[in-house]
Amino acid sequence: MTTTFLLGSEINRLAEVLTDRTRIVFFETPTNPQMEIINIAEAVKVAKAAGALVVVDNTFASPINQSPLEAGVDLVIHSTTKYLGGHSDLTGGVVIGRGELLTPIWTWRKNLGQMMAPEVAFLLMRSLRTLAVRVRHQNDSALAVAKFLQTHPRVKRVNYPGLPDFPGHNVAATQMSGFGGMISFVYDGDAAATAAAVDKLKCFTIAASLGGVESLVTQPITTTHHGVTPEERVRRGIADSMVRLSVGLEDAEDLIDDLRQALD
Ligand SMILES: *Cc1c(COP(=O)(O)O)cnc(C)c1O
What we know:
Layout: H1 14-17, E1 24-28, H2 40-49, E2 53-57, H3 62-65, E3 75-79, E4 93-97, H4 99-112, H5 118-128, H6 131-151, E5 155-159, H7 169-175, E6 182-187, H8 191-200, E7 205-206, E8 216-218, H9 230-235, E9 242-246, H10 252-263
Parallel strand pairs: 1-2, 2-3, 7-8
Antiparallel strand pairs: 3-4, 5-6, 6-9, 8-9
This protein binds pyridoxal-5'-phosphate (PLP).
Pyridoxal-5'-phosphate (PLP) is lined by residues 28, 32, 57, 59-60, 79, 81-82, 91, 93, 210.
């Protein structure tokens, strides 16, 4: 089995890399951490023409903001550790799709022993009851935070699909009903200066997860992309001074004040 990797920005090459042996096209949108937007319906059209199944990781958007199944995707996966759980107190995952595709997955799951413990399932079910209000609040706060970051002189670039001048905005506006709580930005400074600014944040906790009620911050080169070589990071557009935010349920003004004092 071979896998061909494309960057989010290379999605226009999808048709040319598909062969008659391609079984699955797998992607996330928005992507981590650049927040690039893949046109789901377009990717489905190209993949279907080549006879491939389409699987989308919808964790960043959450089911409140994006419904890939409606765009023709075959299987949708979520890390329930993130928005669905929403309180940074459980780990889990879900795969959603047609019964015929789920049956073999169900069998593998059973044989591998992937059973969620009862209290974890209980926490997840409780959390799902507030998913919509949590996500809508996070959508609103993230947009306010992203707009603030755009005005800050030490911020070189803001990646947030809700910003009208973000490259993926128009596609996001057609396939998302909200733009989510995840933002990344590039600070005007080297890796150390960026780490120093991140360390000054008080409302954002430094942690690699996302989607919870508490706002989190990471510098991708020290966490999610630590194992990626510097050359490969450059190719993927992950700057040393990139910062990723997961906007929680705190008052947006408090988050903005905190970012202001840290970045100044
Ligand atoms: C965290 C994450 C995962 C992995 O989920 P876990 O529950 O941590 O195993 C997969 N996809 C995305 C987009 C994530 O953010």
